[in-house]
Predict the 3D structure of the following.
Amino acid sequence: MNSTWLIDDGELAFSSEQNALIARIKDLLAHRMRDAAKRHRHSLGVARTAASLALAYDVDVFDAYVAGLVHDWDKVISDDEVLARALRYRVPIEGAPALAVPLLHGPVAACELPELFPELSPAVFQAVARHTVAACDMTPLDMVVFIADALEPGRRGDYADRQRGLVGEVPLDELFFTCFSEGLVYVLESHRYLYPLAATIYNHYVLTKKGNA
């Protein structure tokens, strides 16, 4: 695995205020995921990977790190509750709501996290919202968090290793598109439900790439 770009948490340099906020987020995250050890490890791994990607691609490292920490904040609640909250917050849902449940924890958390952590940038909450489905107008921070979710050290397999090998070798938008496309391949090969918006996003980036060719 090419991990020369992957740094340790101790190598990150934040202000005292940022470190205090990170400590508070980590304490609350550990409590929230006290019965979900694997999910907790994943969240810490995504934070570390997002910060490393941010350094590699000149994206705000603090925003990337904290977005990684909280990206799965609502992954620990039940499917019924996630759907109920999505409907309560009027989260846009394409297709059958019940089939979209695995994708809703991101946008639902993005509706709730600002009250818990008002110090964080709106860009962080947007990245959290978009880490499951993506969007047609992904920002660099959005892309970093999306990619980090797929490439954190706990992810195993040829797919993850191939993508890790591209970090720093290809532009960020290209790395995002390859991650997004491989995710679609997995959905199709495993005969899972393809969220309608995913096809729209894929076609958007295909046409964008052709337009820039």
